[in-house]
Amino acid sequence: MRRRRFLWAPLLWQLLLTPHAGAESVVPSQTWFVQRVSTGEAPLRVEYLWSKGGRLRAETVVAGRPILTLVAGEFYYVIDTLAGKGVAIRRHARAISAEAAGERPFANEGRSMLAEGAERIGSGSQPGRPCDVYRLTNRRGRREICLTRDEFQLPVRSTEFDRASGRSVETRYLDWARGFPAPDVFFEPDPRVELERVEYDAYLDRSRRDTVGPAPVLYRVLLHGP
Q1: Residue 109 φ/ψ, nearest 5 degrees
Q2: Digitized pLDDT (tens) for each residue of the chain, 226 residues in all
Q3: 39 three-class SS
Q4: What is the DSSP string of 103-161?
Q5: What distance, in Å, lies between the first and last C-alpha atoms of the chain?
Q6: Which of 1, 87, 102, 116 has the fewest CB atoms nearer than 10 Å to its CB?
């Protein structure tokens, strides 16, 4: 049953877009969704990402294994949806403060690259959306990103070459959407999930030796802060 719930995420997405009674009480000033697919010299990774202000819900599939990440308030949750188990890691105060700003907590790579001095090198489209291509080269490697030409400058495609490992990864951003109803409960764990609670310092200590919880922390800035 848990597996069916996860695989029907697109249906849940449609339900969230459907107006319902009392919707005005849960419609935020800004919500976002995107599907992100990463390929290359690393395991294929498919992500469904939702946000409401600074809150995050991410459903990630790696090698057929569904992992749910929820980030809101004091805790960063990593949940194995098949096993119904997970971990709740207390977030650093810096991360909680950053959430209070209410900015989208994912797909901000373009803004970071521009702040680091990325230069425009051309134009392109993906899929069918015109975008500007920017490149940033430094001691870590080379990164390119194609950003939409609107006020949001959303990433639609990026590539990253890591100099140390010699590996390249390409990421495509599909089905961007915003401004839909999303109740707070969508960003909270199912009460039936068995959760281990871990304090931040204990997480740092344990993570030096092994993975804490069912999967690694995928969105590190949301746990540790900027």
Answers
A1: -60, -40
A2: 444 444 344 434 444 444 443 444 444 458 999 999 999 877 788 999 999 999 999 999 877 789 999 998 999 999 999 999 999 999 999 999 988 888 899 999 999 999 999 999 998 876 678 999 999 999 989 999 999 999 999 999 999 999 888 899 999 999 999 999 999 999 999 999 999 999 999 999 999 999 999 999 999 999 999 8
A3: strand
A4: ---S--HHHHHHHTT-EEEEEEESSS-EEEEEEEEETTEEEEEEEESSTT--EEEEEEE
A5: 38
A6: 1
Tokens 């230069």: give the residue: 119
**Continuous H helices in the chain:** 2-7, 9-17, 93-100, 109-115, 200-207, 221-224
Token digits of residue 14: 């449609």
Instruction: List beta partners, residue 189.
Output: none
pTM for the model: 0.82
Counting DSSP H helices and E strands in the chain, the numbers are 6, 12
**Main-chain phi, psi angles of 127, to 5 degrees:** -90, 110
Pairing of strands 167-178, 65-72: unpaired
CB 89 within 8 Å of CB 74: no
**Residue 90 DSSP SS3:** strand
Q: Are strands 75-80 and 167-178 parallel, antiparallel or unpaired?
A: unpaired
Strands of the sheet with 167-178, listed across from one edge: 119-125, 130-138, 141-148, 155-162, 167-178, 31-40, 45-52, 55-62, 65-72, 75-80, 85-90, 194-198
